[in-house]
Design a protein that fits this description.
Length: 155
């Protein structure tokens, strides 16, 4: 009887470890989000995780959407902190059903970040440069006409 209890609890622990491994290994979705980093902080009582938020602005004057994310890699968190105040693109993976907050408070885990240049202020379409007139055609002389026999210059 005691052996059956140990086997049962062993299987439950093995299933829990397999569930955590599966939820952290396979991503539900992947994508990119662009915006300005509003905050990034390391928080938690026992399990310290990097938690952040970016403001995604679609057009000037619009109310920004917030995107909350977690960072598991210390090097990525350092890159995000170095780009504070710049418009950035976060490359993330979404992991659903992670059983504990020790891996991150959100289901969006940032795996890389890159800075982008500022968008143009004007929303007007770009104007194409004016066309240049075609070069004047060369005059065709009998010696340069197609099919004409070549002429030999006199000495």
């Amino acid at each position: 009887m005691l052996r059956a209890v140990f086997v049962f609890f062993g299987l439950v622990i093995l299933a829990a470890v397999a569930w955590v491994w599966a939820t952290l290994t396979w991503s539900y979705s992947e994508g990119e989000r662009a915006g300005y980093v509003q905050k990034l902080s390391r928080k938690g009582w026992l399990c310290k995780t990097w938690e952040g938020e970016i403001a995604m602005v679609t057009m000037p004057g619009a109310i920004p959407d917030r995107f909350e994310f977690s960072v598991r890699d210390e090097a990525v968190a350092t890159k995000i902190n170095a780009m504070a105040g710049q418009r950035v693109i976060l490359i993330y993976e979404q992991h659903k059903f992670v059983p504990t907050n020790c891996f991150g408070e959100t289901e969006y885990f940032v795996s890389d970040v890159r800075a982008v240049g500022e968008q143009p202020q004007s929303l007007a379409p770009a104007v194409a440069p004016p066309l240049t007139p075609p070069a004047p055609a060369q005059a065709v002389t009998p010696s340069t006409a197609p099919g004409a026999a070549p002429t030999i210059p006199a000495k």
